[in-house]
Amino acid sequence: MERINKIINSQEYIDWLSKINQSEKNRIFCGHSFSHLLDVARIMYLETLTKGYDYSQELVYSAALLHDIGRSIEYSAGADHAREGAVIAKKLLEDAGFSRHEVDEITLAIANHNAKDTSHTLSQLLQFADKKSRNCFLCSAQAQCNWKQQDKNMEVTL
């Protein structure tokens, strides 16, 4: 997990998370803090192991820990956070020493983690873990939430 630690300790990553936290300081809905990102990483890796996919822990964790990194751009400019996040993630991944193939795989997953239909397995894993990381059944803003009822995570399952 050496490369993961390079990412999360880089000033650029810390600055992007700070911008997201600042943008969401009064948010009543699900947030996108480091805690959320880490929950997604853990669920995603568990699902990877359960399904027998051949993705390394670092690959899975990097996709999860970077998947919402473009949120502050969405908030300030209205741009798609997934696409913007893939651009930001590319540099962070390269700086941490990920190979070209790994960077391509991870940034594709980040760019497509909100796509309605994707055949890309890492994107599917990221979508699954992102949704399952939300405890909608405990949320005080559940009634005001924009998610459709069938999309809410209303029980503890994997």
Automatic annotation (TrEMBL):
Coiled-coil portions: none
Domain of life: Bacteria
NCBIfam families attached to this UniProt entry: HDIG (TIGR00277)
Lineage: Bacteria, Bacillati, Bacillota, Clostridia, Lachnospirales
Organism: Lacrimispora amygdalina
SUPFAM superfamilies: HD-domain/PDEase-like (SSF109604)
SMART domains hit by this protein: HDc (SM00471)
Pfam families recorded: HD
Protein name stated in the entry: HD domain-containing protein
HD domain ranges (all copies): 33-135
